[in-house]
């Protein structure tokens, strides 16, 4: 009889055992020791270890990876708002999106406007030159805001001077 490789020996041992052959018969046919037969059969018939249940964090990360949003994660896993928000922040950090998170937190009020601009750019309703002009106008808003503050300060000073002068005039008349 030809020598069998390890895989063929295992297959033969399992088949002969299932056919009701004794260890002695199997050992003789496969040319291996009864101890090796025991190891092969133990490995073949062992129960798979039960899968360790995933944590809520792992489940949430998997759902985010699958494209689910925070509301779906909150509802599916029955978690609180702060817990889901924390998991999502961790997920984005792990995906190296910390700059996006920082931008979002600092500029939440502008997101609807930015989404409209992006949509118009995609639909070719707004062109690069117009977008550049828009950006230029937006950058000038900061200048106008500071100018407005400065003018408001001057107005307040003038109103205060007016009040002082009115008080002096009314004091001289009496």
Describe what you observe in this structure.
By secondary structure, the chain is mainly α. It folds into 3 domains: 6-45; 56-106, no CATH class; 109-174. It is built from 9 helices and no strands. Helix 1 packs antiparallel against helix 2 (23-30), helix 1 crosses helix 3 and helix 4 packs across helix 6 (81-94).
Set out the fold topology.
Elements (H helix, E strand, L loop, with lengths): L5 H13 L4 H8 L3 H12 L10 H10 L4 H8 L3 H14 L3 H9 L4 H12 L5 H46 L1
Tags for this entry?
rod-shaped, 76% helix, 174 residues, single chain, 3 domains, mainly alpha
Brief summary of the model shown:
The chain has 174 residues and is mainly alpha-helical. It contains nine helices and no strands.
Major sheet details: none
Enumerate the spans where pLDDT stays under 50 for 5 or more consecutive residues. Answer: none
Tell me the helix content: over 70%
Radius of gyration: 39 Å
Rounded to the nearest angstrom, the distance between the terminal CA atoms is 134 Å
Q: Give the class from helix and strand content and strand pairing.
A: mainly alpha
Mean pLDDT: 86
Q: What pattern of helices and strands is seen along the backbone?
A: HHHHHHHHH
Strand content: under 5%
Number of helices: 9
